[in-house]
């Protein structure tokens, strides 16, 4: 398993999708549905986009867990990375959410799946901070460098520094908070729209960090292990170029492959030299999701990566019975070695 790029992900297939009116005030990336387009049509288009992303990831060899959502009161449930993150060593974090109508996106069935299929020993739940008006919206609010153990965070009312420090203490990350604003002085609502950290490449809109000293500190910290840093423009950020995520897939032959998942819109905004820099270490997998992007998030927001070890897959009953029968009749091979599963398969 790659420390930075998970080989399995969680997606939520929301049957009812509309841009969330409760988040429109502070999400400068959010847009209205085209005039005259019904909610049913919007939801139908979004479902097709979700399915296309899931299939593209599967085709790249990524393990995809899709959870259906029939609840029509959760407009942003397609973005599970805001309430959930997973971490090596069997740790899971659950986060406090700013918009009250997003708080019931947290799902026990998702956590139960993680516990049953992966080695999950501890769930750290920060959601109890919501009544105090303190929020940290997961890997939307933070962009995590799992290799160097750094948590990058653009400060906003969805990303509180006190919770960041608490998270970093609990999960052994170095906090690196900074102010980030657009050209109109509007604070960036989520760090993952301006930054993406991969194993060997990172994309970040450094120009949106107004403090020059802090900007250079961020640049230096990103490159300390030889990582290539691609500087994004604000215009590219508005096309969701920063809202990408590195994943680890498999070729049909079973070889490991690294991919950078992003939207088609994001891919089209990148210059040829930027694409070449990404493709030095990753294959770009781009999927058009224009309807979902109306809600102010893109591909990265849709993906909750699973950084947990998988539990062993249980043997098929027929195969187990075959092994038991062989062991009863021939407990060892002629040279005294135990009979293995390979012998049965042969």
Automatic annotation (TrEMBL):
It comes from the Bacteria. The lineage of its organism: Bacteria, Bacillati, Actinomycetota, Actinomycetes, Propionibacteriales. Signal peptide: none annotated. This is Arginine deiminase-related protein. InterPro entries: Amdntrnsf_FN0238. Residues 23-42, 327-346 are annotated as: Disordered.
